[in-house]
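<instruction>
Derive structure tokens from the sequence

<record> Sequence and structure tokens follow
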Amino acid sequence: MEHRTFTVGLIGVKEVEQAMMDRAVRLSQFRTRVYQLLEAGEAVSDADVVVIDGNPSKAPIGVPVVVIHDRGDERAKALKGYKIERPLLPNRVLKVLDQVTMEVLNYAPELSVGGEVTGTQTSIFETLKGASHEEGKHGKQVDLRVLVVDDSMLVQKQMELTLAAAGIKADFASEGQSALEMQKQNHYDIIFLDVMMPGIDGFQTCKLMKKIQPSPHVIMLTSKGSAINKAHGRLVGADAYLTKPANRETLLEAMEKVFSKK
């Protein structure tokens, strides 16, 4: 899998916290998504991401900004965008940087976004209604209605990118009740459903979805991967149960399998 390096510029960051940022980016060297602090003398405006301690308006225009703030800082709460709360722990830093590169810079290597059609993709295209191999190969929209239900905006973005790369457009909901209302208004062929959500959980949502319309294929997509949870998913009517993180190939294989069920 191809590695990509993103440069990070620092503005007004204390020396001790610069050291912590350096530690965080060094840890990223072992990942597909790599971060590197700008060298002395390099222009901050050339960075892919800017981390600033202070007024975000001082950051270069057009560059994604992450603001460092203290816990409970009311001024920081009022700011829109990306923020890192002190102390600057490496995992906390990398989590926010990953969000920026995913949501703003549209980089999702784990989903192979923009890659060529693989054998797995060809198979799913041949299975889907109204879609041929050539349509999928040339990036045309596949005649398939998909709903993704997850309260994580990051997961929604990941799913949007991976499905779009396969020529599939999806609708999104952040909790079960709104997903049920959307299902009443639309016919969905496949529904990706999280388990842990605000309000009714994914298991109850799946059960109610099957009462509204038995035909949609429901694929549970969750971090809860125990055998008990998988069994619970089957009991409420889920057609497949995937554990996060699930890469692009795994998602497409699951879609193919549920469509091949008679």
The chain has two domains: 4-107, 110-260. Residues 4-107 form a domain with the Rossmann fold fold (CATH 3.40.50.2300).
